[in-house]
Structure formats: structure tokens, C-alpha cells
Request: fold
Amino acid sequence: MSVDVPTFDHTSAASIPDIVDRARATFHAHRTRPIQYRLVQLRKLYWGLKDNEDLLSEALKLDLGKSTLEIFLSEIGWCQNDIIYTCDKLEKWAKDESAPDVALMNVAMGPKIRKDPLGVVLVIGAYNFPVQLSLGPFIGAIAAGCTAVLKPSEVAPNTAAVIQKIVESYLDPASYAVVQGAVSETTALLEQKWDKIFYTGNGTVGTIIAKKAAETLTPVTLELAGLNPAIITKNADVRLAARRLLWGKHINAGQVCTSHNYTIIDKEVLPGFIEETKAAMKEFYPNGAKESQDYARIVNERHFHRIKAMVDNSRGKIVIGGSMDEGSKFIEPTVVVVDDLNDAMITEESFGPLLPVYAVGDLDEAIRVVNEVQSTPLGLYPFGKKAETDRILRETRSGGASVNDTYFHATISNLAFGGVGESGQGAYRGKASFDCFTHCRAITTTPSWMESLIAIRYPPYAGKLPKFQRLIGEKPNFDRDGKVKTNLVKLFLTLGGAGGKNVAGRYLIVIL
Reply:
């Protein structure tokens, strides 16, 4: 079926202030606050995706050469499922919550947490998953009751143009808009005042956005990439590790922010891992990766040459793959054994189908290397026995982790996802997407009948300190050495239970 993808046209920078002003006026008119309004917009977005599946598929193939299965799993189907899940849960998420652990003396004020939309938000998408990484946070903004401006990546122009068509044809134009462009248009957007900026991309641009946002104290969520390590211990199943890590670089030709950037492997199992990776290559691509209908292409020539230069400049040894074709922007999954931690294969993010491998003597060295290369990657992928993987998780940090697999945690659409440190800040997906664009507003209501009870707070304060100390003073249950003191009366009355439910359960057992 032949479809005509709309053209990608830059938005006039001069029109951007008016676009933002319209979104702000709509928000201040409280148009997006009602839950039913948000649900209708989300449902319309779902049908916008459904009605334009063929158009989006064609755009994604033009931009990235994605397979039909990848398009469904990681782009269109992903967002459709996200909308359905959000619609099912939204009323529950948006309800006021009772404040936890409120002292008895404050209960009468009815302390609660109200979920308020942050306001007018900017979402800046990425090119590698141009539907999911643009519409994913956009769905969260709609659900939270914000008005939003979406800036898709110009590096995937065909998909960006289709997204604009969908948003403008299906959603309320007073509340939601799409701005197209590159550096100049993004710069113009950042000159505006926002109530939240959500950016997915690289750390260099993320730093620019964070600095600009700081000028107006605008909160940001930064979903960045990182030098994500895989660790294969001497007790790991190397066949399993080879298949799963190769698959991680197969998806979108390795253009995945969570894919492993390098692999640290115990030297004892390196030969076996190489052989198992060769076997997996033959299984995945019987006629070679270039002939596979399931293997994507590098997004453009600039990124093709960037990845090629990493291979050309590496001092490592290519043991699998290495073929490239500039005309079709094809780069084969390429395994390179390196022996220098300063090799660009280790120190730079490939964002492509490169699989550098570095051998170590033991797990101590593996953990030390990971923490030295980058201590806060977006993902971490340990392979080995439980005791080993538990230790790796305990002695490292990362935005997320998948044990004995590659970025499985990132494939669960309603599991909170985000980076830490150099790999970003904040999280989204599922309820976390709603929370990302929501302010938790603490509210109390003091009844007039309490006036005599709270009159102690009014000056003059002479003689009132002892009363306040008796009223709100807390006594520690620990001594000066930090040890917990045992209260025998409390222990007896609670039967050793730590909470109300535990105490009730223990009394029930005693009674029965």
C-alpha cells in the first residue's frame, strides 16, 4: 500500500511566542483540568495513531529502516498500549490522597495531597525512537492536565511530519501544538518560559537545556544516554549472554540509549563468548545482516561516519562483523576485542551496532572498571550467578538494570524509567509519566471550631514553651551510640509488632 508522507517544514521562529502564549492562555482558562477532557484527548490521540499506522510505518522505514515488527513493538503499538493503560488508570492517579502518618492532633485539618498539573510544558523528542520518545512523555503531559508543545527530532524528519499531522488533526489546537525545526527553532523555544521541560537526547544538549532552564528556575526531566556496561562473570552462561547482548545491538541497529556500550568479561570465558556470538550471528542473520529484512539502518550519513570512525580509530581487533555500506547506511554488528580502557570504543558512546569487549582477571576488576569508565550509566547488565549479580548491583550505580539480559527493564512500558547522574534526572512511563508533569500540592483546612484549641500558637508566648514541648515534642527511641532502646511496655502491648496491621494480626493469633 503506497502512502504519501507529508513534508517536513520548519516552524517560523517568529511564531513560537504566539504558540506558547496560546497554550498558556488555555491552561489559565482551566480547560485541561477536567479528567474527562484529558481522557477525550488521549482517546483521540489513540485513534490518530491507529488511523495513521501505515503513514507512520512508512515514515519510520524512510528514517531508520525499521522492520515492521520493531515498528509495532517499540513505536506505534507501544504508544497505543500506553494510552490505553493511562486511560484505565487516570482517574485513580488523579484522585486526592490522604496524607500518610499524620499526628492525631492534625487529623481534623484533613491534610491531603492534590495532584495539580504543572502548567505549560515543552517536550523535546529524540530520533532513534521518534514516535515513542516524543509521544511517550507527551501522553504523560496530557494525562496530568498540562498544555504542551512538542518538538520532535528533525533527524527523523518523515516521522516528525506525520506526528505533526496527527497532533494537529486529532487534538485540541488550543492546548497542544507541534514545533518543527533544528537548533534555531529549539533555541527560540528555550527562550520561552515553561513550567516543565522534558528532553530526551545526549548529555551535551541536555546540559545546555538545563542551564537555560535554570535561568527561570524551570524544572527539567533529562533522559540522557550513557556508557552502559555489560558484565559477564566466569560463571555466566555465555551462550545466553551472547544471544541476549547481540539482540540488544540488533534492535534499531544499536541506536538505543539503553543498549550496552561495552562488555567487561572474565578472560576465562572470552573465547567461548566469541564463539557463541558467532553462532548467534548466523542464527539471527542466515544470509547476513545486510540482507535481513529485520535489521535497521543508521539514521543519516553523519552518524554513519561517526560510528565508522570509532571502528577505524580503535586499536582493538575486529573478531566478528565489520562490514559497512555508506550508500545504504548499513553497519554490521561488530565485535571488537580491546585491551585499552582509553580506546574510543570504551570511552565514547557508539549509539550503534558496535560490541567492544574488554577482558578482566576477576569480578573485583570488572566492578572497578565499570565505576571508573562512568559511575552513573543509564543501564547496567550483569550476567552470572545470583551472588555475583547481587554484588555488582550493590557496588555500582545506574539508572536501571537488567540481570542476565539487556535492557529488559526498559521494555516494560509501565515501569518507571530514568537516568541518574550523568545519564539524566527524573523518570517517566506508566504512572511515573503522570507524576512527571504533576505537582503534589499539600492542602489542609482548619475548621473554625478549632480556634480555642489552636489559640496557644498566638503571641504573647511567655510561659507557652513547656506546653508546646509536651504537645509536639518527640522522644527518641535510641541512645547516644545510635542503638535502639527497648521499651518493654510498648513491646508487651504490641506483641513485638511494628505496625497496626502486624499488631492486630498477632493479637488475632493469640486470641485464636
